[in-house]
Amino acid sequence: MKRYLVAFGAVAALLAGPIRAEDKELNLYSARHYQTDEALYENFTKQTGIRIKRIEGKEDELLERIKNEGANSPADVFITVDAARLAQADALGLFAPVKSKVLEERIPANLRTADWFAFSTRARVIIYGKAKVNPADVQNYEDLANPKLKGKLCSRSGSHPYNLSLGSALIAHLGEQKTEEWARGVVANFARPPKGGDTDQIKAVAAGECEVAVSNTYYLVRLMRSDKPEDKKVMEQIGIVWPNQKTWGAHINISGGGMLKTAPHKEAAVKFLEYLASDEAQAYFANGNNEWPVVASAVTKNPALESLGKFKPDPMNVGELSKNTALAQKVFDRAGYR
User: Fold this and answer.
1) What DSSP assignment string belongs to 247-313?
2) Contact yes or no for 116/257 (Cβ under 8 A)
3) What's the Cα-to-Cα distance from 180 to each of 136, 158, 215, rounded to whole Å?
4) Within the chain, what is the greatest distance between any pair of CA atoms?
5) Mind listing the pLDDT tens digit for each residue in 271-284?
6) Across 18-22, average pLDDT
7) Can you give the pTM of this predicted structure?
8) Which of 33, 117, 232, 334 gives 20 to 30 Å between its CA and that of 104?
């Protein structure tokens, strides 16, 4: 606990420190589209006096924009969701290494690289229809390829980064050949061609369109916190399994970011990244968008999120995880998982 208090004090000291006139603003390119993040940004400005100029868009659009802007890009920080997308930006050589004792102290080693950092996590879990599926049959990701689920599985596109990250993790744990066999088994079990997002898969299971699917946890908690009767009914129809609890653990999906090489306001950029690792900012991720903080000392108040309970997460380093993303796409393409 002492270590966290010291680190938090360092965050506060940095945020309160002197800022040069040219660092009174920060240009943020964000692929996070959550209204709850507004409070996050406003609080940073109140604490530091640094105004945030934000450009929001889809990941590919923002990355293309940064590339086209080149050395003259005004972007200081790029944030998005999923390790696969952050790795894509890193592979393009867009991030600059950040040396920060605050980030090293507060963010676990497996949730950061030299160039980018995770600031919140979600788990990719298995959803099943309570009325039709025995949860004992879907305890592991590998079970999704079991022929007994033929015609019972719903999925979003295999090319979506959430699924590619899961595929990347499976390659690391099982190898390329076994992951391709798994993907072929998954395709053979589809109840319908992949479509929609995670929430669509949850609702499809609840409606009986299929019996099993996978989803990131924050979509589930969003439905749990909804006041709509139809959303409450959805949650009554489904069960949740934490996968692979007897092996490597549930796959972890992240939200994170880094400072760009061409950042014109580097000091402000580092301060912003350090702010995202503060207890206060970490609470915003949990309370506002149903994500788990990466900082152990953060205090959150989200009963729905907490009701999911404790689980064993996959401890794989996010940098290692992201190395297999391109291969996962090739494996899925060969298997017809599109």
Assistant:
1) TT-B-EEEEEEEEBTT-S-HHHHHHHHHHHTSHHHHHHHHHHH--EESSTT-----HHHHTT----B
2) yes
3) 24, 12, 21
4) 64
5) 999 999 999 999 99
6) 49
7) 0.90
8) 33
**287 band by pLDDT with thresholds 50, 70 and 90:** very high
Which residues contact residue 206 at a Cβ distance below 8 angstroms, ignoring those fewer than 6 apart?
Answer: 129, 233, 234, 235, 237, 238
The amino acid occupying position 114 is A
Please count the helices (runs of H) and the strands (runs of E) in the chain.
15, 8
Other C-beta atoms closer than 10 Å to the C-beta of 57 total: 14
How much is the average pLDDT of 245-259? 97
Q: pLDDT tens digits for 81-120?
A: 999 899 889 999 999 999 999 999 999 999 999 999 999 9
CA dihedral 202, 208, 211, 214 (to 10 degrees): -10
Residue with tokens 């589930």: 220
- Residues 222-236 have pLDDT tens digits of 999 999 999 999 999
Sort 8 into a burial class: Cβ within 10 Å, 0-12 / 13-18 / 19+: buried
Tokens of 12: 């506060």
State residue 132 phi and psi, 5-degree precision: -125, -15
Give, as one character, the DSSP assignment of residue 191: S
- Alpha-carbon gap, residue 208 to 204, rounded angstroms: 6
Q: Which of 322, 338, 332, 336 is nearest to 180 (CA)?
A: 332
Cα 19 to chain centroid, rounded:
31
Strand 25-30 to 51-56 pairing: parallel
Residues 6+ apart with CB under 8 A from 35: none
Q: What per-residue confidence (pLDDT) applies to 2?
A: 37
Find out whether 229 and 238 touch, Cβ atoms under 8 Å: no
| C-alpha 150, offset from chain centre | 29
Tokens of 26: 């920060």
